[in-house]
Specification:
The chain contains five helices and nine strands. A hairpin with a 4-residue loop joins strand 1 and strand 2. It is globular, with a radius of gyration of 15 Å. By secondary structure, the chain is of the alpha/beta class. The chain has a single domain, classed as DHBP synthase (Alpha-Beta Complex), CATH 3.90.870.10.
């Protein structure tokens, strides 16, 4: 795993896109502060830039670097919910402009997966995470289900967990309102 971590971080620092296993499904990713790399992710997915991407962080302490105001209840939810949880926050900052929604919101998940945590920590920046499928196609749970077109077009493919089966699904998504209340977007 150590060699794969080094190679993945090197690719990300060079502004490349990656195909990698996450705590949920196989994902396409890049440095979330690199506008050119984010643009390539949209292109790989054949997705319009107005459809937001998820950003991964390795610690809740990092939220303040990318969100103007984090409601206290968000920290409680992150700590107490043990399944993958993506939270949409208002007033994103410090990220590539094309990863932030038009309403200035951003979807962020604090990752628990050891490989992803080490990648984000080594990169020193947040990581884009979006399912490794062309928009409108089925989300791949296994590496073998990833569209060959994506495998050919992505810059680097992580050579871990390619033959593994994890009983996973996309994360739950909630959105915080300005008043601190939240609504469930995806169960």
């Amino acid at each position: 795993m150590e060699e794969e971590i080094k190679k993945t971080i090197k690719a990300l620092k060079e502004g490349k896109t990656i195909l990698y296993p996450t705590d949920t499904v196989w994902g396409i990713g890049c440095d979330a502060t690199n506008q050119k790399a984010v643009k390539k992710v949209y292109s790989l997915k054949k997705r319009y830039e107005h459809k937001c991407l998820i950003v991964l962080l390795c610690s809740a302490d990092q939220l303040k670097n990318y969100v103007e105001h984090v409601p206290e209840v968000a920290y409680d939810l992150i700590e107490s919910i043990k399944t993958p949880l993506t939270i949409i926050y208002s007033n994103a900052k410090g990220l590539a402009k094309n990863v932030i929604a038009k309403d200035k919101s951003i979807a962020i998940r604090i990752i628990r997966d050891e490989f992803c945590k080490r990648i984000i920590s080594g990169l020193g920046k947040p990581l884009v995470s979006t399912s490794a499928n062309i928009s409108g196609e089925k989300t791949p749970l296994l590496f073998s289900q990833v569209n060959d077109e994506i495998k050919k077009e992505v810059d680097y493919i992580v050579k871990l967990e390619q033959h593994s089966f994890k009983n996973v699904k996309p994360s739950k998504i909630i959105q915080f309102e300005e008043n601190g209340e939240f609504k469930i977007i995806r169960q």
